[in-house]
Amino acid sequence: MIYQCKTCKRYFYRKFPIPSGKSYCYKKAKISDVVLVSKDWNFISNMINNYNTSSKWGFTTEELSTLKSRFSGIEESIFDDCLTGTTCILINNKTRIYHCDIITALKCSLEKRSMRAGELD
Ligand SMILES: [Zn+2]
User: How many A from CA of 65 to the centre of ligand 1?
Assistant: First the structure.
């Protein structure tokens, strides 16, 4: 489940619905400031696929770090592992990371798990 903190505007993942009476934002926002935005990964997939990247082929590293700053709770080592060895392309001397690879990296790093067999290229 994808939630958004209304205070810092960041998105974060929870496996189970957030019980009432607790603070969950990484920046300690109150529970009332946290809203459910999606019960599945479609929200993330749509956000990445419709992201305003400078090339339709993928994200530059700068665009990727801007995207990542919109999330809380990304496990960096998992995120990097997911992108290690993936295919990149070079456009205007900049490495582009494919949208689909970023979606997988986000899913795994937010869920804090390794890639599943079907998610490998
Ligand atoms: Zn917050």
Answer: 18
- The pLDDT tens digits of the residues spanning 65-96 come to 999 999 999 999 999 999 988 888 888 888 99
Q: How confident is the model at residue 5 (pLDDT cuts 50, 70, 90)?
A: confident
In tens, the pLDDT along 27-55 reads 665 666 788 899 999 999 999 999 999 99
Short-list 50, 54, 44, CA closest to 103:
44
Residue 67 and residue 102 in contact, taking contact as beta carbons nearer than 8 Å: yes
How remote is the CA of residue 90 from the centroid of ligand 1, in Å?
A: 35
| d(C-alpha 38, C-alpha 109), whole Å | 17
From ligand 1's centre to the CA of 28, what distance in Å? 6
CA of 35 to the centre of ligand 1 (A): 11
CA 4 – ligand 1 centroid, Å: 8
